[in-house]
Amino acid sequence: MPTRRAHSKSRRGCTPCKTRHLKCNEARPVCSRCRDVDRECSYPTRTLARHQGADQQVSLSTGGLASSDSYGLALSITTSTGGTSAEVGDQGDIYTIRHIRLLDNFDSVVLSGADPAGQQQRKAYMEIALEFPFLLNQMLALSAAHMSVSNTTSGAADATEATFLQTRALEQFNRFQSTPRETTSEQQRIAVFLYSSLLSMHVLFDALASSESGEPDSLNYTN
């Protein structure tokens, strides 16, 4: 009986690829997978230190934490030669229990419906959003906007969260659009289409919420 070939793992792969159990080509400063989906690419501190020259110094500093949600730490690399710093990771890939609540609300409100077509739509959103942070953050932003008018106990906090997530998604989308690439994959085109659709819904939502007669909490976003 032939022996089973062991799966080779990349020990020096970037953190996002390791988290998603994907094979990483270990390109620096950005691996090919992270570059294709415009995802922040970072490597473990130990790996970074091993690849620094003898005349370079690696230092980690904690960035400002969001007041209530603690979105995470901002890591910076400072080299003694250049005297500049670059962010290794940003808050775009940090999510909390609060975001899980928003994602559940997005699923039950924005993508409501138990028919097979609705389930396929939900699956498409989730699969693509996991690869494109700007889409995931816009999904959460729209959900927070809805909860800002449907939840009387946390309306103000949800409204602030909606603005924060919408801005974060827009910044990520702009970076994605400005990244040079030879070709655009079908998945990338779908992600851009879904993001544009949700952003349009969010703009309409804000317009109705600011009008005296608008009732955005009763909107059905799938129509």
From TrEMBL:
Single GO MF descriptor: zinc ion binding
UniProt-listed InterPro entries: Fun_TF (IPR021858), Sterol_Uptake_Regulator (IPR053157), Zn2-C6_fun-type_DNA-bd_sf (IPR036864), Zn2Cys6_DnaBD (IPR001138)
Residue span, Zn(2)-C6 fungal-type domain: 13-43
Entry-linked CDD domains: GAL4 (cd00067)
Keyword Nucleus recorded: yes
Domain of life of the source: Eukaryota
UniProt keyword annotations, A-Z: Nucleus
Nucleus as UniProt keyword: yes
Xref: PANTHER family: STEROL UPTAKE CONTROL PROTEIN 2 (PTHR47784), ZN(II)2CYS6 TRANSCRIPTION FACTOR (EUROFUNG) (PTHR47784:SF4)
Protein's name according to its UniProt entry: Zn(2)-C6 fungal-type domain-containing protein
Taxonomic source organism: Fusarium torreyae
